[in-house]
Amino acid sequence: MADWILRESLVTGSGTVRWDRLGDPGGEPVVLLHGTPFSSYVWHEIAPALAAAGYRVHVWDMAGYGSSGMHAGQDVSLGAQGRIFAELLAHWGLQEPAVVAHDFGGCVALRAHLLHGARYRRLALVDPVALKPWGSPFFRLVGEHSGVFEQLPAALHEALVREYVSSASHLGLRPATLDALVGPWTGEEGQGAFYRQIAQADQRYTDEIQPLYPTIDLPVTVCWGTEDTWIPFARGQELAGLIPGARLVPVPQAGHLVPLDAPARLTGELLTFLMA
């Protein structure tokens, strides 16, 4: 990830969080949230494109992810991430930015808005974790036996993470992109962090907010990869039906990693939404 470096940091109750900004300081603010087991690198093509279009783009790695701090005993739950995101918005002085959130980042953005008072001008949800039930059989297996998986030999662990991350793409990831997504989860610190974030994943964090979706009162678009094998397209239809006025945008030939499978198509949809 030599060409993707987050230069700023904020110390939070869950450790140091890395973040950065791109684009014209006077541009309309847009914040991008990543999911799991990824990092802000999923936006490495879309963030510069939005910045080139005149937006002030904010990116960050969630606590325990990417270049942010990782340590034993760290709270990296969705509950913690929602609080941290609200804290980051205050730190940035953003009162009502546009927000674009992928996967777990969708739950983080929704929790910050519905439970912690964060206000958005617009919200774009990209294949978000937002509705029950969620969690693949692999995800549940690892969550129930995280202590065992933490002891895997390093090479076997890396092979597992590579296969898991690869399965989120429909078209296949370029080797350098796959390396950038897998890299933070390698080494003793990264291996522990990978299983820690899965062990702390709990459906109750979406159960707490799902009944509140009909109260959302802002423009929302739901973009969904039609070939998503992690969370099927039908969940996008269901979610869009729960949020008043939400628009569902299918993204053809894209799996769960829409920002990497279809960056140009997604950028175009986001620009249309942001300028509406």
Automatic annotation (TrEMBL):
<dbReference type="InterPro" id="IPR000639">
    <property type="entry name" value="Epox_hydrolase-like"/>
</dbReference>
<dbReference type="GO" id="GO:0046464">
    <property type="term" value="P:acylglycerol catabolic process"/>
</dbReference>
<dbReference type="InterPro" id="IPR029058">
    <property type="entry name" value="AB_hydrolase_fold"/>
</dbReference>
<feature type="domain" description="AB hydrolase-1">
    <location>
        <begin position="29"/>
        <end position="263"/>
    </location>
</feature>
<dbReference type="InterPro" id="IPR050266">
    <property type="entry name" value="AB_hydrolase_sf"/>
</dbReference>
<dbReference type="Pfam" id="PF00561">
    <property type="entry name" value="Abhydrolase_1"/>
</dbReference>
<dbReference type="GO" id="GO:0047372">
    <property type="term" value="F:monoacylglycerol lipase activity"/>
</dbReference>
<protein>
    <submittedName>
        <fullName>Pimeloyl-ACP methyl ester carboxylesterase</fullName>
    </submittedName>
</protein>
<dbReference type="GO" id="GO:0016020">
    <property type="term" value="C:membrane"/>
</dbReference>
<dbReference type="InterPro" id="IPR000073">
    <property type="entry name" value="AB_hydrolase_1"/>
</dbReference>
